[in-house]
Write a structure and sequence with these properties.
The complex is a heterodimer of chains A (341) and B (531). With 341 residues, chain A is α/β, with parallel strands linked by helices. Chain A has 8 helices and 19 strands. Helices cover 36% and strands 22% of the residues of chain B. Classes of the chains: A alpha/beta (341), B alpha+beta (531).
Chain lengths: 341, 531
């Protein structure tokens, strides 16, 4: 299988096509699963990605690079291999990358989730021989609730905070999580404001045709509005900064899969933690493996050792990829939040 | 039970005192007295005796979740809390009924302790299948005796006071000592019409505030306004003489029966209606205080043998008088209480009961010198108490100050690390430190506290990048980080590789300026050893 993909210091390399998949350093040719910084490295000479990620990638990558975008499902020949992109359900434009060489198929999931998310296309299984899967939440302690349930409790918190004359501030990563959140908020409760980084990504989403509720950039607000009862969507790094002062009495919340663990909730020192993730949980990871039905699985980025061991015990050939890839891969928030933020 | 689980959730999700108090007050107002009694019991930190071995709970949880044992253990390592791991790993159940907290305890928890294993397994799994993850977290914490929540007894007392209208001090007093969590008990706590104290009931302890060592006692004002005595390193206790019986209570509100026969015999010499506050010290009747290590030999012994009684005698060093002739004296100024205390101790005339020695100096500077000699006296420093102050409940600022000696400190190298628990689960935050001996590093102390969250994250990253070996959850790391470790005392120990045990080790600062070679040696540590 190594002639198809090879772990290197710069990330997964495909010798038959001479490109890197989600490189960890600037390279000549990058094939990119989605626009998060730990997958789309700034400074590459050329990027190949799925069409729906165009707005986000152009927003975040160096302008002097060459970009090439492919619609989902369309095959393109690169060197001796055929590449195509398939929805991963993680954020807008996120893809699983299918690489075919002499009848063998490798699939790199990038980051993915199986649930419904109106801001991006839903994950779909792809038959493959080699599956390279992320395992950020690859432990049976992670079990996501249906998004309707999660959003019901977020909107409930908004109503209660409004009744207590507070302003809600919810933290999520600027690209992806924030828009997933926005799509689930009930705009009939009150006005929605956004942090600058969030609003930039909102623009890219809207330009791509994603329907989001009306939002106002906090920085563009003039005068002294009444923030009571409003919802502010902000990046996690804004927590505890002077920027927060203007909102007066606030109730704060963090939206992340890590909030499933009480210790993480407490360490964040936010009032509420909502378990809203854009990654697969334990059950859906196993389901994805079953549906793609690969001969071999390489597990990366997270609880890779645990997932690989479990899959092996279930009779599937699986191994850990992290040791060979230069990526800060550990099961824990400290590594993750920096990588994803 | 749903309501109690919600209360737990509310308390857990806020750090604000007022929100905690109002969450508890609302709960107390909305439940039956029997439930309020059990909630009070658990929130006080009292536990059910262990009902099911945790080993079995782990096994059943893995079976119920359909995962191998090793995977459950991995999950536990990541979460850092058994009850929480169970609540997350086991598939969510369906809530069947909303039985009350007290009926849960009586019908679903207590009986577990008497069951055989298969029956027990069935009952536990039934609990899991009939509870949401939030409820399961709380029930498992209760069953494993790991129920802890960031609520002090003081906050709980204020919540009960606010919902019942009984003064806080009265509630605090009624919650002291041994009581059974029954509806009658709770009704007595919130009943304004009766004097609800029992003969054995102790008073809430007054606690001292640490004095800022940089600032010293100068800001406290005139030296004449204070009584000064040694701060002893023993066991804080209350000796109660009422209705011809003697009760000795620890600060942890444990009734210590048959543990201190010398003090019980001294108590028998006191008139009825007397309560003394003081320190149990290992000491000869001539007054020489023995090292804490000696007292430790008696701590935890339920029955004390003759040999130990001769080798390690104890003396109650009384420093306050809370009740005399059955009257509560706590409102009187300390100077008056002290005068009466001395009189009572003198009249009792028993070798194992003394009043603490007062130290008389005319300036804070002189006291500073006295404090420096604390270790020679086997004291931890000085206590400064306002002469005109009443006996407060809890840690009220401004009346009692502890002015401790500077701790011992030593520069040591971090060699092992382990993930923490609770707030620090999944971060490497528990460290083992080592000192040099003949060119190798010998572990001598474990320390958990002292670094900021930001520093912990940095150390965490270092550990992940510099792990050389793992033994179970313990990582062995490249010896590079040097930290200044402080501790209160030292004693020889055959159980430690280094041959020394330290008391209360903690990190003072991260010595970025030092290389591992600059760290201290075990010989340096040995030099600090008293005696």
């Amino acid at each position: 299988m190594d002639e198809l993909l090879r772990p290197t210091q710069h990330g997964l390399y495909c010798p038959a096509g001479d490109f890197f998949v989600d490189p960890s350093r600037p390279v000549h040719r990058a094939v990119v699963s989605h626009a998060h910084a730990d997958h789309a490295r700034w400074g590459c000479r050329s990027y190949l990605a799925a069409k729906p990620s165009e707005q986000l990638l152009r927003l975040r990558m160096n302008a002097d690079a060459t970009f090439h975008f492919l619609p989902y499902g369309e095959k393109e020949t690169v060197g001796e291999v055929k590449i195509s992109f398939h929805p991963a359900g993680h954020i807008l434009g996120s893809s699983q990358i299918r690489i075919e060489h002499r009848g063998r198929v490798a699939l790199v999931t990038g980051d993915y989730k199986l649930g419904d998310d109106p801001t991006c296309e839903t994950w779909e299984p792809v038959d493959c021989d080699l599956l390279i899967t992320e395992s950020t939440f690859g432990l049976p302690i992670y079990r996501w609730e249906p998004s309707a349930t999660i959003f019901a409790s977020i909107n409930q918190w908004w109503r209660e905070s409004q009744a207590a004359e507070k302003c809600c501030v919810i933290y999520g990563y600027a690209v992806g999580k924030s828009q997933h959140l926005l799509a689930g908020l009930d705009p009939s409760i009150g006005p929605i404001f956004t942090h600058g980084a969030v609003e930039k990504a909102n623009d890219a989403y809207r330009r791509s045709g994603v329907d989001l509720p009306e939002t106002t950039h906090v920085g563009s607000v003039e005068g002294k509005p009444n923030w009571q009862g409003a919802m502010v969507v902000a990046v996690p790094s804004a927590h505890g900064t002077p920027w927060m002062r203007k909102f007066g009495r606030v109730s704060t919340a963090m939206a992340s899969g890590w909030m499933a663990i009480r210790g993480n909730r407490r360490r964040r020192s936010v009032d509420r933690g909502f378990v809203l993730s854009d990654h697969v949980d334990w059950e859906s990871l196993l389901k994805a493996v079953e549906l793609c039905d690969p001969e071999t699985v390489w597990v990366t980025h997270g609880s890779s050792a645990v997932v690989a061991r479990y899959l092996n015990e279930q009779g599937r050939d699986a191994k850990v990829l992290d040791g060979q890839l230069r990526r800060e891969g550990d099961e824990d928030e400290s590594a993750k939040s920096e990588a994803e933020s | 039970m749903i309501r109690f689980a919600n209360l737990y959730g509310e308390l857990d999700s806020t750090t604000k005192t007022n929100e905690k108090i109002s969450a508890m007050a609302n709960y107390f107002a909305s439940v039956e007295p029997a439930d309020a009694a059990w909630a009070t019991y658990f929130l006080c930190g009292s536990k059910l005796r262990r009902l099911v071995p945790t080993k079995l709970l782990r096994k059943w949880a893995a079976e119920e979740a359909g995962i191998p044992d090793w995977l459950f253990d991995e999950s536990y390592q990541s979460v850092g809390d058994l009850a929480e791991t169970i609540s997350l790993v086991v598939p969510p159940g369906e809530i069947r009924d909303d039985a009350s907290l007290s009926s849960w305890v009586a019908e679903r928890m207590h009986p577990l302790g008497k069951m055989e294993e298969p029956e027990q397994r069935q009952a536990v799994i039934e609990i899991w299948r009939q509870s949401s993850p939030a409820m399961r977290l709380v029930t498992m914490k209760l069953i494993t005796g790991a129920f802890r929540i960031g609520v002090s007894k003081r906050l709980l007392t204020r919540a009960i006071a606010s919902h019942s209208g009984i003064p806080t001090e009265a509630v605090a007093h009624r919650l002291m000592g041994d009581w059974e969590p029954t509806a009658e008990f709770y009704q007595r706590v919130i009943d304004d019409s009766v004097d609800a104290t029992l003969p054995s009931q102790p008073y809430p302890f007054c606690l001292a505030h640490p004095l800022d060592p940089e600032e010293g006692p100068a800001p406290l004002g005139n030296v004449d306004q204070y009584l000064v005595e040694w701060k002893w390193d023993g066991i804080r206790g209350q000796v109660i003489r009422r209705e011809d019986s003697t009760y000795i209570w620890s600060r942890g509100e444990e009734l210590m029966e048959n543990r201190w026969p010398e003090i019980e015999s001294a108590g028998a010499q006191l008139p009825n209606g007397v309560v003394l506050d003081g320190e149990i010290l290992a000491a000869t009747v001539e007054g020489e205080v023995l090292p804490f290590a000696q007292l430790q030999r008696r701590i935890g012994r339920k029955k004390v043998g003759k040999k130990l009684l001769t080798e390690v005698p104890v003396v109650f060093h009384a420093f306050d008088l809370l009740e005399c002739e059955g009257r509560d004296l706590r409102d009187q100024p300390l100077a008056d209480r002290r005068a009466q205390l001395e009189e009572i101790v003198q009249q009792a005339d028993h070798p194992n009961l003394r009043a603490t020695e007062l130290i008389n100096n005319t300036s804070w500077d002189e006291f500073a010198k006295t404090r420096e000699s604390s270790r020679e006296h086997r004291a931890e420093g000085l206590m400064l108490k306002r002469k005109d102050a009443a006996y407060d409940v809890g840690r009220v600022k401004g009346t009692w100050w502890k002015w401790k000696t500077d701790p011992f400190t030593i520069d040591a190298v971090l060699i092992y690390a382990q993930k923490g628990h609770g707030r620090r689960a999944s971060l490497f935050s528990d460290y083992t430190f080592a000192l040099w001996q003949d060119g190798s590093l010998v572990p001598f102390a474990k320390a958990y506290s002292g670094l900021t969250d930001a520093e912990i994250r940095k150390v965490d990253r270092f550990i992940r990048q510099n792990t050389n070996d793992s033994f179970g959850p313990v990582r062995s790391v490249t010896p590079e980080l040097v930290m200044e470790v402080a501790f209160e005392g030292l004693q020889r120990s055959s159980r430690h590789k280094s041959g020394v045990a330290t008391r209360f080790p903690r990190i003072v600062r991260w010595r970025h300026d030092k290389q591992p070679d600059d760290a201290n040696s075990l010989a340096d540590l040995m030099e600090m050893m008293p005696d």
